[in-house]
């Protein structure tokens, strides 16, 4: 989209949210309210609360899209063939150290086969290694290799610099509040 443009997409009687770009930033317009399709229960929320939930849904959608682009940029810089979803594995292992594959998959909310496939690729690239679980010799743990830790940290820190720039003018309390509320939202 071009700077300053916005619009709605209409079809089948529904109005979908659209986005516009203003000075390099994408903004989401949730569009006018539409009635719930027949058969869906009406919301117990007030209209104002319902509108706030719709606004939040639109903003989270944008945040998710940007997070995917962020993850893709980090994984592509590590290896162009690396699945962008591997960013979550790398980030998790960089913060917890070693973890069982089943626990890693549960934390990320993805299936064990998907996690195993991504781990196999990360192991082949020398970014992750498998070790014996000292508690249960039948199980194994996965962790970043020294090379994986170093390469991931460089890429993550370069991209985190963009976030620092973006938040530099925010009041530190606003940054804390946003982090706290996102953490609370993610507790489901």
Q: What is the CATH third-level topology name of the domain at 77-188?
A: Arc Repressor Mutant, subunit A
- The CATH homologous superfamily of the domain at 77-188: Winged helix-like DNA-binding domain superfamily/Winged helix DNA-binding domain
- Count of individual helical segments: 6
Percent range for helical residues? Answer: 40-55%
Give the name of the CATH architecture of the domain at 77-188: Orthogonal Bundle
Q: What is the CA–CA distance across the termini?
A: 34 Å
Characterize the biggest β-sheet.
Answer: 3 strands, antiparallel
Order of helices and strands: EEEEHHEHHEEHH
Indicate the proportion of strand residues.
Answer: 5-15%
User: Under the CATH scheme, which class of the domain at 77-188?
Assistant: Mainly Alpha
Major sheet: arrangement of strands: 5-7-6
Low-confidence parts: 1-33
Write the layout of secondary structure elements.
Blueprint: E1 9-11, E2 14-16, E3 18-22, E4 25-29, H1 47-78, H2 86-96, E5 99-100, H3 101-108, H4 112-124, E6 128-132, E7 140-144, H5 146-167, H6 172-185
Antiparallel strand pairs: 1-2, 3-4, 5-7, 6-7
Helix pairs in contact: 1-5, 3-4
